[in-house]
Design goal:
Structural class: mainly alpha
Shape: elongated
Mean pLDDT: 91
Distance between the termini: 12 Å
Helix content: over 70%
Number of domains: 1
Oligomer: single chain
Strand content: under 5%
Number of helices: 5
Low-confidence stretches: none
């Protein structure tokens, strides 16, 4: 499970960095339905893209720690979950978004419980002794 935690944290980190940079570069064009939203939404989207890239870098930093710090994983997963909750609020207030936003909400609400479950795996493996941690970890 420690290996799965590290791999999932790395995947999360690189995905967030890539998505964030994509938004910084493309602005409104990166957001389905926002192509003509104007300069204010474009500015906000690019700023949030940079913030999301930074969030991804935090995941990558966490994945490189030995052991992977459970507390940091829980905090980062909690932030991701909060994003999913924000989408639910938007759905309740504004109605159904474009289909891809729904798919993202499913990921944002479904992935954090997996991280919460795996969060302490690396720390537990380390406490169990070096024989519990495969070579190269």
């Amino acid at each position: 499970m420690a290996k799965a935690l590290r791999a999932l944290a790395q995947l999360m980190g690189w995905s967030c960095v890539a998505i964030g940079v994509y938004h910084v570069i493309l602005g409104n064009a990166a957001i389905p339905g926002a192509g003509s939203a104007g300069a204010t939404v474009d500015s906000w989207g690019r700023f949030m893209g940079a913030s999301f890239a930074g969030y991804g870098l935090a995941w990558l930093w966490v994945a490189r720690q030995r052991p992977v710090p459970a507390r940091a994983v829980r905090w980062l997963a909690g932030v991701f979950l909060l994003g999913g909750v924000g989408r639910l609020i938007s759905l309740a207030v504004q109605g159904w978004p474009q289909w891809f936003q729904i798919a993202l909400a499913v990921i944002e609400l479904g992935l954090p419980p997996v991280f919460f479950w795996l969060a302490g795996a690396d720390e537990r493996a380390l406490r169990s002794g070096p024989e519990a941690v495969p070579a190269g970890q």
